[in-house]
Structures are given as structure tokens and as C-alpha cells.
């Protein structure tokens, strides 16, 4: 397998998060927002992809980050948003424009205070996709 399903997976994740009722009002971006940046926003981030082909067909294992950026005084609101993102993505019926999702799992998270005083939580997910 190749990197062929990456754009389809990213689009499906973005659409799912953008349309989820639990995330209404949350700014979700796949690039750094320009202009006035919201106090809290979600950014689709880096990705690592490995071949996941097997006897059943061509596939890939994607490890991708979704990060929460917040200027809030503490971590509480960012952690609550991280929990909502996890709940929204896990077992999500993502529809890809090419191929299909076999499974999507939480991998890890890292919460840290940045040098400018802002908070960032990096959520890492694993997704197994197969080409149709």
C-alpha cells in the first residue's frame, strides 16, 4: 500500500469532527488559523503511515495527531475538549472518499504548558484503512 488513502482519511476525520453536535462552536482546522486566532481551537496535525497490506488486500496503518490549543488559564477545559474529541472519533462511522476504515483507536496523549503560557494537548490515534 502507499500513501494513497491519507487525504481521504484526513477529510473524513475533518468532516466528522466538524459535523458532530458535541463539537458545535469548536474551531477545527487542518492548517494554522490566520487572522484572529480563537482562544481554543483544534488542529489536525502530523501523520505517520506504514504499509498494512496483508493477504486480504492493500492497506495502511495511519498514526495521526489531533491537537487542542488553548490560551485558558488551566488544563481543565482543554482536557474536557480532548475527552469529547476521543469520544467522537472512537468507533466513528467515517466515510472515506476512497477505500474504507477498518478501525480507529486511541494511541496516546501528551498535555503540556507551552513557553508562552498556552496549553497544548496532542492526541494520537491509529487508523487501519484498506483500499477498495
Secondary structure elements and pairings:
Blueprint: H1 6-19, E1 27-29, E2 40-51, E3 59-70, H2 76-89, E4 100-113, E5 119-130
Parallel strand pairs: 1-2
Antiparallel strand pairs: 2-3, 3-5, 4-5
Would you give an account of this structure?
This protein is of the alpha+beta class. It has a single domain, classed as STM4215-like (2-Layer Sandwich), CATH 3.30.2000. Helix content is 21%, strand content 40%. The chain has 2 helices and 5 strands. It has helices at residues 6-19, 76-89, and strands at 27-29, 40-51, 59-70, 100-113, 119-130. It has a 5-stranded mixed β-sheet with strand order 1-2-3-5-4. The chain is elongated. The termini are close together.
Provide a compact summary of the structure:
The protein has 132 residues and is α+β, with helices and mostly antiparallel strands. 21% of the residues lie in helices and 40% in strands. The protein has a 5-stranded mixed β-sheet with strand order 1-2-3-5-4.
